[in-house]
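Tutorial handout. Part one gives the primary structure; part two gives the three-dimensional structure as C-alpha cells.
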Amino acid sequence: MVRKLLIVLALVVAAAPALAQNSRAGKSELYLSPLFTNAQNYTFEGGSSVQTDTGVGFGFGWAYNFDAHWAAGVEFGWGDIDYRASVQPGPGNPNLSARFNSTIQTSSLRFNGTYHLTSGPLTPYLTANAGWTYVDTGVPSGLPQNVCWYYPWYGTYCSTVTPTHATTKFAYGLGLGVRADVGRSLVLRGGVSQQYVDFSNFSTTPWVQWRLDIGTRF
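Part two.
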C-alpha cells in the first residue's frame, strides 16, 4: 500500500504543471508526516522473539534550507505497533515458554540533515537523523493501580492503570526519497528510511519506515 502511495505521488508531481521555479535556498519549511513502519520478525536475548504488524504513526517537523542542496531541522513523531511475542524461560525457571499480544507505543525526537541531489524543484534526496526514542512495550511491570486526576472544567476523574515497562534509547537512521516544490510554497516528499533503536540486549533494533511529507516553505 505504501509503495503504491509513493508511486502515485511521483506521478502526480511529474505531471504537475506548476513546479516552483524559485529557489528553496534560505527558506524554512514546516511539514506534517503520516508514518508507516514495516511488519517484521525479531529475535532477542535468550531466544525470545517478537513478530510486529505494520505500524502507523504521525509526525511534524521544521527544517531550514541553507542553500539549494543542504537542509537541516528537527522533528517529532509518534506511532503504535501491534505485536505478538514468545517469551522463553530464563536460567533456573522450569516453566514453559509463554506467548502474549500487546502494542508498542513510541515517540521520537530527531535531528536530521538532508542533501538534495539537484537544485531544481523536483529532486531525489538523501537524509540522516539522530536523536532519542521513547518505547513503551505494553508489558506490565506491576499490579493494576487505582489513580485519580483533577481535570480543568471536568473535576476529579479516577480509573485503573497498569504500569508497563518503558525506556528511552538513542536512535538514528538513514533514508532516501523524492522531493517536489510545487507552486510558491507547497512541499511534497515521499521517502523510506532504515531506523535503529539502541537496545542493550539486542545491539540495535532496525525499523523500516515509509513516510509522506506535506509542508509549506516560507
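Part three, for discussion. The longest strand covers residues 98-116. The CA atoms of residues 25 and 67 lie 4 Å apart.
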